[in-house]
Design a protein that fits this description.
405 residues; alpha/beta; Aspartate Aminotransferase, domain 1; Aspartate Aminotransferase, domain 2; 2 domains; 7-stranded mixed β-sheet; 4-stranded antiparallel β-sheet; 14 helices; 39% helix
Length: 405
């Protein structure tokens, strides 16, 4: 059992009123809140250890380097990777996907080759591949989905063919909450020697991820969705693949030696970390991992699942409300439509009651087009949310219906 009050005390932002109501924060899929432990870790770096990392001989630089590289080891353990060399710090999942697109996939693409994604991807796992296809003459192919918001894998064997150079798919849909069967998909792709990238931005806050068990080639996530600072994330890549890839960006720290005639690149993972990194962000992300693991990620996932089940049951019981995305396996997300009311109006009325939800297309416009809707209202849960806040969600829907009756 989680001590929810103690947990909520760790998140100072939750202790406030919005428009005269206690804040109910249900926008965690967009960005989660930060515990005081993470806030303090970032502040302490700037107070005590602020210096650039790597190669500095003075004490502050050494302390900063130790903390920065210590966080890399925490990410390695968090993802169950083999080596620190397989963990590259990036600004977030978006930068990681662009890195793989340009450094790993682009050199192997020719006219007529294919990149395979799914219909439920976030724009961050669509647009980089579209850009890459425009640059190379390759074609973007899409795994379809069903009306309940699950991937339709009936044609996966045909879509994975000799022209496919990579499969890039989200672990969990940010718009629907669907947990995709990525392990099976990875096996199918690898049976045809096709590498796989998994966008785990919506997965790592809510479940244990083991990249060795999954056997994915690349796994990416963003810190700000898992209680860490913004502007930091990580790319996992199998060491042999990262070794063979050219750098994506050039600059300081990604080199061993530079002359006007030749540059020798640094070893992994620094080859992909050009320039001064987000040191404070990386330290904060390591602290966020410590915090989650201290509570037990399986415990957090169980509590969030109970919130989602309760919210789904209560919202389903309401007349005039339709849940968008009813997959059998879901995590943390409840997207819905209220009959006769635009989602933006829903979000505005919710805000007047102190309830923060997300409204819009959620950077997943193809999903909205599939369902024939402009947008949804989306409530997304974290482990600091409560059953009372599920009730606040239901009351918010009823208030909207009263106003638009």
């Amino acid at each position: 059992m989680l001590d929810l009050q103690a947990i909520r005390n760790d998140f100072p932002i939750l202790d406030q009123e919005v428009n005269g109501y206690p804040l109910v924060y249900l926008d965690n899929a967009a960005s989660s809140q930060k515990p005081v432990q993470v806030i303090d870790a970032v502040a302490n770096y700037y107070r005590q250890d602020n210096a650039n990392v790597h190669r500095g001989v003075h004490k502050l630089s050494q302390r900063a380097t130790d903390a920065y590289e210590g966080s890399r080891s925490k990410v390695r353990d968090f993802l169950h990777a083999k080596s620190d060399k397989e963990i590259v710090f990036v600004r977030g999942a978006t930068e990681a996907i662009n890195l793989i697109a340009q450094s790993f996939v682009r050199p192997m693409l020719n006219t007529g080759d294919e990149v395979l994604i799914s219909h439920m991807e976030h724009h961050a796992n669509i647009v980089p591949w579209q850009m890459l296809c425009e640059q190379t003459g390759a074609n973007l192919k899409v795994i379809p989905m069903t009306t309940i918001g699950e991937l339709d894998l009936s044609t996966i064997d045909e879509l994975l063919n000799e022209r496919t150079k990579i499969l890039a798919v989200g672990h969990v849909s940010n718009a629907l909450g669907t947990i995709n069967p990525i392990k099976d998909m990875i096996k199918k792709a690898h049976a045809k020697d096709i590498p796989v990238l998994i966008d785990g931005a919506q997965a790592v806050p809510h479940m244990v991820v083991d990249v060795q068990d999954l056997d994915c080639d690349f796994y990416v996530f963003s810190g700000h969705k898992m209680f860490a600072p913004t502007g930091i994330g990580a790319l996992y890549g199998k060491q042999e693949l990262l070794e063979a890839m050219p750098p994506w960006q050039g600059g300081g720290d990604m080199i061993l030696s530079v002359s006007f005639e030749h540059t020798q690149y640094n070893e992994l993972p620094y080859k992909f970390e050009a320039g001064t990194p987000n040191i404070a962000g990386a330290i904060g992300m390591g602290t966020a991992i410590d915090y989650m693991q201290g509570l037990g990620i399986a415990n957090l996932a169980q509590h969030e699942h109970e919130l989602l089940v309760a919210a789904t049951e209560k919202v389903t019981a309401l007349e005039g409300v339709k849940i968008i995305g009813t997959a059998k396996q879901k995590a943390s997300v409840l997207s819905f439509m209220i009959e006769g009311v635009h989602p933006h109006d829903v979000g505005t009325i919710f805000d007047q009651q102190g309830v923060a939800i997300r409204t819009g297309h959620h950077c997943a416009q193809p999903v909205m087009q599939f369902f024939g809707i402009p947008a949804t209202a989306r409530a997304s849960f974290a482990f600091y949310n409560t059953m009372e806040e599920v009730d606040a969600l239901v009351m918010g829907i009823k208030k909207v219906q009263e106003l638009f009756a």
